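Progress note, project year one: complex with protoporphyrin IX containing FE.
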Amino acid sequence: MIPPTQRRLAERRRVARHRRALGYWGVLLAMLLSLWVGTTVVPPAWLHTPALFGHLASVIAGLGAAVLLELSGLLWMLRRAALDDLRRVERIVSTLAWLGIAGLLATGAFLQPDLGEPLTAIKMVAVLIAAMNGVGMTRLTDELARLPGGVRFSALPRRLQAWCVWSAVVSQSAWWTAVLIGMLNTASR
Ligand code: HEM
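Model obtained:
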């Protein structure tokens, strides 16, 4: 007979796993839809400037949220902040990050991406990695939610430490790759 607390925990994990699977599929479908619109629809010329403005605003929201979150994680690693502070920041900025990604996919679709261009193809892979990593991070957040708010980063098991660092490195690398290539594309048009 499984104790009720363990059963509740297992049920919560199952729901979280299900939600994450939906998240991965949602990201993939949104990305495919954005690229399909971007490569088939020819938007009117007047739409370019507002779409580019929306794209930049979304970069500010998405990248800003990612930088804030990973900076808070770094401060926790360096013992300049508590895990509780990181969790508070995560709760505030995660919605902003997803709004940023949704905005980038929506506005990018009207900027006519040229997928035949190798740099643009690399950018799209970076976008997909940033968004998928965002979904994957919810599992890490769940693991960290089970720890006491004052726990030190150095007291974590090696596996969890490596997971935190890896998620942050993947996130920042993917975001900055997309930003850099986006800027290069605009500059070369
Ligand atoms: C993490 C996601 C993304 C980031 C960080 C990002 C970032 C950027 C940046 C910084 C620029 C340059 C804007 C400027 O210098 O004025 C740009 C341009 C561009 N982006 Fe993105 N972008 C993202 C996703 C996308 C997606 C999903 C698409 C298409 C479906 C897309 C299509 C474009 C195009 C076509 C341009 C060039 C626009 C032009 O100058 O005519 N981007 N992006």
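The helical segments are 4-40, 48-77, 83-108, 118-145, 158-187.
The chain is about 80% helix and 0% strand.
No further modelling is planned for this target in the current period.
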